[in-house]
Amino acid sequence: MKLIVNSWMTASVVAMADTLLACEQLRVDPSLVLQVLDDGPLRMPYAMQKAEEMRAHSYQAGFPLDLALKDLGLLADERDRQPRLPGVLRDTLERAVEAGHGREDVAAVAELMKQDIT
Fold this sequence. Notes:
Oligomer: single chain
C-alpha cells in the first residue's frame, strides 16, 4: 500500500509542477489558479503545500526525490504490466536526481521542468 500511495503522491506533485509551469508559459497568475483549486472540489492540501514550496523555490526534504524514485522503481518491479504514467514519473524524477536534486523534496521536480523548456 505504501508504494501505491507514494506513487499517487508523486504524481500529484509532478502535476502541480506542470500546472505552475503552464501558468508561467501562458502568463496566467498562478495565485488565481491555486485559489480556484483550493476553493473547489479539487482541493488537496498536500498539493497546495507543494505549490507554495515550488513558488518559493524551497525544497527542504519532507519526501526526498531519490526516495520517491526508489519507491516508483519498487512499485514497477511488483506490477505485471506498466501503464505510461509511472514511466513518465520515473523519467522525470531520474532527470531531477541526475540534476542534483535527489536529497531535496520531491517538489524540486519543478526546477527540472522549468529547465526542460528553457
